Amino acid sequence: MSARFAMTRLSLPGGLVALMVNNFLMWGGFFMVIPLITVHFGFGLGWSALSVGAVLGTRQLTQQGLTVFGGALSDRTGPRPLIALGLLTRALGFAAMGLSTSFPALLASSILAGVGGGLFDAPKNAAVTALSTPENRVRVFSLMSMAGNLGMVIGPLIGAALSNLAFRTVALTSACAYLVSLGILMLAVPPIPGTQKTGSGLGGLLTVVRDRRFVLFTLTLSGYFVLSTQINVAVTLRAVELAGPTATGPLYALQAGLAVLLQYPVVLLAGRHFTGRQILMGGVGLAALGLGSMALAHSFAALLACTALLSLGGMVVFPTQQTITARMAPPQLMGSYFGLGALSLGLGGALGSVLGGVLVDLGKSLAWPALTWLTLLMVGLLTVWGLGRSLPKENMSAEDMSGDNVPAKEG
């Protein structure tokens, strides 16, 4: 089955289309600001790479740590109220970033932004699962990711253009994107009832924590997010060294643009020939190779080539992770499973943000910049090995990933 034919067979309800538009706005708003935090505070104000990494890592850990509870609460209330509250909180957090002139103020605003993400992250995935079917779910998650990557293309370009005015202008524009997303959510996404009819919904977390296979999978995959978060830290810092502050626009545009163009057909093609376990291991391996190759990149063009390899690996990881999570979770605990699963991004992203800053500073002090990239390569290879140990070989056939022969009920 060709990717083009598969796409013509995919009919989506309006609520899913609205969630995809929201994903575009949310990623666009996010990537307007995040790359410029490194540029504005690291290069403009002279903060250390460790300080910038600590701010980014704190936001990441706050968001993914609270996502556990946001997902569990959505099992009780339904996803939409949590998403709405999260969007409003994120808007306030990013607006506050524009007013920050000190490390404590920036740290506080990043925590507020992280709280917002923790409220809407897992409920958003639970809403996608509720509005999709087992037959089209992997393709829907791929399209959601493509919409987000399109925002990742547009956001940095808008941010770079507005940065000529002031960082405050960029932050306020980003906040407005989240407010528009809130309006679309309330107008176009239908209410989705909670699946937990009694209690607070937090009891579902105990069930997830006892699922040793899923917990091991989540912890192992955090190694990949140590790698992926480097686009905001080590890769951005290196790009600015090679090509100046405006390098962030082309850098993010390339990474996300490749995902917009290739993610859907690549996921379909990979799903026809490999299991989900193999796809996940291969994606992490390619990302590790892309970062490791940056040790040999001494020009901006070479850095972009390595970033393309990083993007190629990453574009198959998200939909595969989300589809595996949906298959592992009982239907009544989707939010709880997606919430705990987000810890892989929280732990890996927080560690990666700090580790990236430490490695960059240490590499400079030792006059050995390759230290950063070789260390990240080892992290990636260890993650591939861990996934091979934590996921059973029979997990998700090629037909499951392509969406052609998925059973009516997920086991």
TrEMBL record:
Record bears the keyword Glycosyltransferase: no
Main subcellular location: membrane
Subcellular location: Cell membrane
Matching CDD domains: MFS_MdtH_MDR_like
Pfam families (UniProt xref): MFS_1
Keyword annotations from UniProtKB, A to Z: Cell membrane, Membrane, Transmembrane, Transmembrane helix, Transport
Listed name of the protein: MFS transporter
Organism this protein belongs to: Deinococcus rubellus
